[in-house]
Amino acid sequence: MPVLDTGLLFNRENRRTASLRISIMNRGRQQARASIQLYTNASLETGERTNGFEAGYGAMLTESLANVQLSAAGRPRSLFSVTREVALLPVYGVRVTVVGLAAGEVSASMAEVDEAGAVIGQQKLELLSTSVDDMLHAYVANHTQHTLTVIQTADNTRVATIPLPTGCSPRLLDFTPDGREVYVTCQGDKTVKIIDTLTHTVSGEIKFPLGAVPFAIAVSPVGAAAYVTTLIEDYLAAIDTDSRTLIKLIPFPPGSDPAAVAVSPDGKRVYCCLINRGTLAVIDTAEHTIAVTIKLPAGSKPSAVALTPDGAHAYVTDIQHERLYCIRTSNHTLAATIKLDPGSDPQQLIITPDGSLAYLACRGSDEIVAINLSRNEILTKIELPEGSNTSDIAVTADGLKIYVTILTFGYVAVIEVASQLPIAILPTGSFPSGIAISPILLQ
């Protein structure tokens, strides 16, 4: 996971920099995803000591400028640039964090521009020599203990336990694209809690209307939006993550029982499983309306949905017929059906960042089923202890490890993708019901 950085730069008084123009380019033959951040410092200038710190010390402030998907070299969208005003900042720096198969082939540069529009300085962002693996975390929601367990994915150690209000019952969770916040659905007090990933503390909450119980959540990979399905009252709630407010409740037909939700890579569509309708609802995020409803085979009960990195296909699990469906998103037609063993009860699924594999958490058969997506066939099955009661599954940004929550025994199982074998068992709190892993960088 390369990190490109300018270091902290001083804004000169003579010929002062008014704006920065940051450009990134993918020179590789595969895709990559990049996060661009601006950082500056907040100095403590008054008093000898402030909040326990001596005068003269400061704190870093960061701002996310963009989270973008870069196409392969030479193709449309393989280049990206963004401009940010910095005239009022005494110091500043720019950091670009990259993941994906072509992560090592992405370069970044920055131009400093004065008020007249003239370029007064240029530099190439340098590759940081230090590893950022220790900044990548898995957050686990402990449903009956009302806590979150934070695990460092580099060495699988517990780094924090975050207490939540008694009775809030956290269920599922997801990261913002820059990794700075985690949104957690809490069914007990009907809220979504917002967690600051730098301090591992609750920084805010969003209350839901009476009768609506938040369940599944997906944060858009672009823009500032999150989408939450609700139980009892059949809605999809759209949240503005900048203002931390509910902006729209999109109703489904009564009795739909909306379950899992996923957002397309471009953020333009949301896919929602309606269990009791046997359909996949596609929501237009610009209009906040249902654009189309995809009818699945008769009697289907869709329980989970995930999209390929290019957004070309949506994969949907069916707990009634024990199947995995592949849907073409271009015309909403069924492209393939993958049969699972009877009694599998596929609850959740994820797709690896390179789009080559899908992993299904099968509660009924106590196993993880790996699917080869190029052939749409089962590659292997990874056995778990009998009665594990798997509840959620996540993959690291580099695609090397899979994390599975085990409800019955109160731990997370870590599976190595290369060997398709469990490599660690990580104790958590009681009833670990959901898990999410840092998408890029916690900084």
Keywords:
443 residues; mainly beta; 6-stranded antiparallel β-sheet; globular; 0% helix; single chain; 4-stranded antiparallel β-sheet
Tell me about this structure.
The strands form 10 sheets. Strands 1, 2, 4, 7, 9 and 12 form a 6-stranded antiparallel beta sheet that branches. A 4-stranded antiparallel beta sheet has the order 8-3-10-11, with no helix packed on it. It is globular, with a radius of gyration of 22 Å. The chain starts with a strand and ends in a 6-residue tail after the last strand. It is mainly β and about 450 residues long. The chain has strands at about 5, 10, 20-25, 30-45, 50, 55, 60-70, 80-85, 90-100, 105-115, 120-125, 125, 135-140, 145-150, 155-165, 170-175, 180-185, 190-195, 200-205, 210-220, 225-230, 235-240, 245-250, 260-265, 270-275, 280-285, 290-295, 300-305, 315-320, 325-330, 335-340, 345-350, 355-360, 365-370, 375-385, 390-395, 400-405, 410-415, 420-425, 430-435.
Secondary structure layout plus pairing:
Blueprint: E1 3-5, E2 9-10, E3 19-26, E4 32-43, E5 49-50, E6 53-54, E7 58-70, E8 79-85, E9 91-99, E10 106-113, E11 119-124, E12 126-127, E13 137-142, E14 147-152, E15 157-163, E16 170-175, E17 181-186, E18 191-196, E19 201-207, E20 212-219, E21 225-232, E22 235-240, E23 245-251, E24 258-263, E25 269-274, E26 279-284, E27 289-295, E28 302-307, E29 313-318, E30 323-328, E31 333-339, E32 346-351, E33 357-362, E34 367-372, E35 377-383, E36 390-395, E37 401-406, E38 411-416, E39 421-427, E40 432-437
